[in-house]
Amino acid sequence: MNHALVSAEIQDFIRQNTKADVPKLALQKNPFAPVEWHAILEQISAKQKAETKLPTWFQTKNIIYPSKISVEQTSSEKTAAYKATLISGNRLIDMSGGFGIDDYYFAKKMSEVIHCEINSELSEIVAHNCKALNVTNIRCIAGDSTEILKRQKVSFDWMYIDPSRRNDTKGKVFMLRDCLPNVPENLDLYFDYTRSVLIKTAPLLDITAGLAELKYVKAIHVVALDNDVKELLWILEKNYHGSVKIIAVNITKEATDSFSFDNSTTASATFDLPKQYLYEPNAAIMKSGGFDEVSTQFNIAKLHPHSHLYTSNTLLKFPGRCFVIEKCVDYTKNEMKHLLTQTKANVTVRNFPETVDTIRKKWKIKEGGDRYCFFTTDKNNRKIVLLCTKL
């Protein structure tokens, strides 16, 4: 860690330039030689990224940031706070500590958190930031987390792991065994030290594939932030052999929508033609795969087994977008001429043979406006277009 970066003068300069154009700033002469100009500019770039994602860090004096990419890849405070609601007890070990955002929130729930980080410089940065944030119950240990774990003389209430993909796996299907640490390979060792494991993975991981690689999975939380799926959280309990609860969560400024179902329960969806209202599930539900469960739990009909759009004549409080259907027409040249030519609309395709770009070019539909147009397939396998107004 570059300790010169915490000098009062450099910290003041970083704060004063949080709105600056960094590439333009880079052309100026370094006012703090012999401290590397690149290192100062990197702090400004990372702090800019932190303003909305990590407001606590952004607002705290003397915070040191790792690279801008590390800040981009770390958990947001909102998702970290959600993770902390899933754990309890006295002692937690984080096997892949990173920038320590998750551990900051775990430390609000646990008496002691051990932050393991193989990158010694990053470990030092997190230890420094803990002091700046006045957090006293996080212990930072640099080194290989598996070796650190083996040296521990105590058991843990929880173990947290955020495995990272190895550099040689680019382009391959995302599998946990291709990550560091290799969770499937080390699970038996982990359960020698804890009964409860929380694993964070990227949403790129297929839920079915993850279940095939792991054992003792008790629950999976699909976490979206403002309708953008950010992470999958896997809760494992030693020797658990039962159904898996899947919880789809969408965190917004206004509220947190949660939808859950049991993966061992077979739900039977109902199907109907478009009615007065149209419902599009949020991104977390779409990732969870609980499409038939939505139909069952809300008692609403799907348009088609593969369309994942729902309809009813009574307006429901629904975890996703809701629309009034103004018009429903067959997807034909004649109907489209009267419906949308030379107009503006927000276009969505669901179970439809053409892409949004193709549809826009073909029918000269400009993007935007307050009209929403869904191109989809109904229960009779007809290609239809729904012109809607958002509620």
UniProtKB/TrEMBL annotation:
Query: What Pfam families has UniProt attached to this entry?
Result: Methyltransf_15, PG_1098_Fer, Thump_like
Which part of the chain is the THUMP-like domain? 320-390
UniProt keyword annotations, A-Z? Methyltransferase, Transferase
Q: Where is the PG-1098 ferredoxin-like domain?
A: 277-319
Top-rank lineage group of the source organism: Bacteria
Provide a Gene Ontology MF annotation, just one. Answer: methyltransferase activity
Q: Which InterPro entries match?
A: PG_1098_Fer, RNA_cap_Gua-N2-MeTrfase, SAM-dependent_MTases_sf, Thump-like
Record-level GO BP terms: methylation
Q: What is this protein called?
A: Class I SAM-dependent methyltransferase
Its lineage reads: Bacteria, Pseudomonadati, Bacteroidota, Flavobacteriia, Flavobacteriales
